[in-house]
Each structure stands twice: as structure tokens, then as C-alpha cells.
Amino acid sequence: MTGIKGSIGCRCNTRNLAAAATAIGILASMTGLAQAQDRIVGEFGWLGVGKTYEIDKGHFYWVGEFSGTFFNEKGDGSPMHKIGLKCPGFNDLDFTNKRTSAGGYCIGTDLEGDRLYLTWRIPSGNPAFGSRNAGTIEYNGGTGKYKDWSGKFPFLGTNQVNWADGTATGYASWVR
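and the corresponding C-alpha cells:
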């Protein structure tokens, strides 16, 4: 086949069509990989360890680290499943005025040693224990498979229990 005149005005032959089909296939698969973090849904169970400062009666400022494991709801073989996360951050808890804000960073490491860097924020919410407070997670790249990850996505953070030893436990639901 020497070629056919395409409807878009190009001179197409079998070799050009095969190359175009291959390029489209590669681009489609790359797009799927690049957008994989768009669809990550799961739970991050954490233990918070840090120091609390009483700013005023009923108003506390906590600074420390939330650490734990993220579980992708799709299970084994899915992005970030069982990645370990260490998240230095703060939590400004004003029980008198019933408002809170929190934020920080996360460093994730998976079993292959690839690292993922995140920023998280809860601009405002309710400090009552068990309250689900809306925030955002921003992917800021990393190493290996996470090198080109970017984007900002919603999450819900919950401070479940404050323990007598000053630690706290809770969880974050990602992209729900």
C-alpha cells in the first residue's frame, strides 16, 4: 500500500498509521499513570505525638507528628497501598470558639524505597472529637514512581481520641 489520502488532508501509509497508533497508545497509558493519583481513595490511620501549648483558656496549639500507614481501598498492587507516612504538622484547637485549623507536610516511603512528598491543610473546622474536618492534600513529587506526581485533592481528617499520655489517634479519608 503506497498510501491513502486521509480525511484530515494527510498522506497516510501503513507505517505512519502504525506509528501514530503506537504513539496514541503510549500517550494514553502515560496519561493513565499520570492521573493515577487523581483516583486514590483510602484511609490513613495515624498516631499523633507532640507537644501541646495552652494559648488561652480552652485554646490549645499542638505541634508534632502524625505517623501511620495509608491503605488504598483497591488493595495490593494499587498506588500508595501500605505506604508509610510521617507527617510533621500543627493543630490549632480553639474549643471556646469551636474552631480549629491544622496543616503540615508528609513524607511517604513505600516498600521499594520510593518517596512521596505531600502538603496538607485543614483551613477551618470543628475541634470536637470525632468531627470530620475537610482539607486538601497536595502531591509535591518525590522519587522513583512518585517523581512527577502533582495535584491537589480533598480529604476528611478526624481526631478520634486524645489519650491520657498526650498522644492522639485518628484517621484521614482521602478523596471521599
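(Above: one complete record from the training split.) The chain is about 10% helix and 55% strand.
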